[in-house]
Specification:
By secondary structure, the protein is mostly beta strands. It has a domain of about 220 residues. It contains 1 helix and 31 strands. Strands 20, 21, 23, 24, 25 and 29 form a 6-stranded antiparallel beta sheet that branches.
């Protein structure tokens, strides 16, 4: 069951100054690592790319001798490659077996015939897993190594999922302090400096302890309450970081009931400290990342609403030209969904906000008990109450 909760956007923009931090300091170099389970190793989520099946053999590409009569072909897009993509082919070791061999144009020469097949480390009836799969880019300072993980879904449209298998990490200096830095190619396109108003297209960086949150790669990053200007090398090998100075801020206002508010874009991701509903951000375009409202009931239970997953309705401009208000929060709207399920019916509820974001309701940190539903016929001959269960 889910509940819809409307959210109003108001942004107020105030005048301050634009960032002009100096990047005269030296590059801070990071070490490259790879793993087939980046999520567990780094304790972060990654997005990756959904690769669609190509219906025809790629023209002008030399191919190996396949065992499969109809091998599968894909393109992995990356701005790091000469042609903007690398071709991939999926074959099988046994004619009647699962598809468990992957060829990738690892050096970008437009040739698959000279490639050695990568064997799946795990193969099931409809899923095959490959990785880490190594590719090499030609960088400005010579060849650069990069790794990918792949998962073939061998059913329906046969998509191939590409996720990052490589990342950079090391110790950097922030001000006078030493910090551990992890840099992740979140969208698995081969570059590490992507910044975007679309969160899935922004790469990730974590500076600090292992359990600290990964932030968006952007123009800025907040560390220990201070704002720094950030520059990330395209291939991820180093970063530059300097204290941000002369920053132009815009002010915005949300309802005072809002406890937490976060927004992100090309400037980075910010958890904003609110004072009576007033907050500020470096000027730029942002998308709301989340908001929360907390309240205690008469018995002391702590109830929390949290809104996430904003579409374009959650985008706002933080400028110095005008003050923008962001009207978000209550009321919450619940939509009940009913569908036939064999001889019976299934019910679900969706809680969303007015901007289309999903809203989560918790009580003392957990989901509250499932509600009940009363079904009564028009003539009153049937009248029963059922208890829902989360399924």
């Amino acid at each position: 069951m889910s509940i819809k909760s409307p959210i109003w956007l108001t942004a107020a923009i105030g005048l301050l100054a634009i960032a002009s931090a100096s990047f005269g300091q030296e590059e801070q170099w990071l070490q490259y690592q790879s793993s087939r389970d980046i999520r567990s190793v780094l304790r972060v989520d990654v997005a990756g790319q959904y690769l669609k099946l190509i219906s025809e053999k790629p023209e002008g590409v030399a191919l190996p001798d396949f065992k499969e009569e109809k091998p599968l072909f894909y393109k992995w897009p990356s701005p790091m490659t000469k042609n903007g993509h690398l071709f991939i082919a999926i074959d099988r070791a046994e004619k009647q077996g699962v598809r468990d061999l992957l060829y990738i144009d690892s050096n970008g020469d437009g040739n698959l015939k000279d490639e050695t097949a990568v064997e799946a480390y795990r193969a099931e009836q409809q899923h095959s897993y490959f990785g880490p799969v190594k590719v090499t880019f030609e960088g400005k300072d010579g060849p650069t190594t990069y790794h990918l993980n792949f998962r073939l879904c061998d059913h329906d449209e046969r998509p191939l999922w590409a996720t990052p298998a490589g990342w950079y990490e090391g110790t950097i200096t922030v001000g006078e302090a030493k910090k551990h830095c992890v840099l992740i190619d979140y969208d698995a396109n081969g570059t590490f400096n992507d910044k975007s108003i679309n969160f899935s297209d922004s790469d990730r960086i974590r500076i600090g302890e292992e359990n600290s949150a990964a932030r968006f790669v952007g123009n800025y990053i907040e560390i220990d309450g201070a704002l720094y200007q950030l520059e990330v090398e395209r291939d991820g090998s180093y970063i530059k970081i300097a204290k941000a100075e002369d920053v132009v801020y815009g002010n915005f206002r949300v309802p005072q009931i809002i406890g937490e508010f976060a927004a992100g874009g090309e400037n980075g991701l910010f958890d904003i400290k609110l004072e009576n509903g007033l907050g500020r951000l470096p000027v730029g375009k942002y998308r709301i990342e989340h908001w929360t409202i907390e309240r205690k009931d008469e018995t002391g239970n702590n109830w929390k609403l949290e809104g996430r997953g904003f579409g374009d309705a959650g985008v706002f401009d933080d400028s110095t030209e005008k003050e923008t208000e962001i009207s978000i929060g209550e009321p919450a709207i619940c939509t009940l969904e009913v569908a036939e399920d064999g001889p019976g019916y299934s019910f679900g509820r969706i809680l969303t906000g007015r901007l289309g974001e999903l809203v989560r309701l918790t009580c003392n940190g957990d989901r509250p008990p499932a509600p009940k539903v009363r079904i009564k016929s028009e003539d009153g001959s049937y009248d029963r109450t059922f208890a829902f269960a989360y399924g």
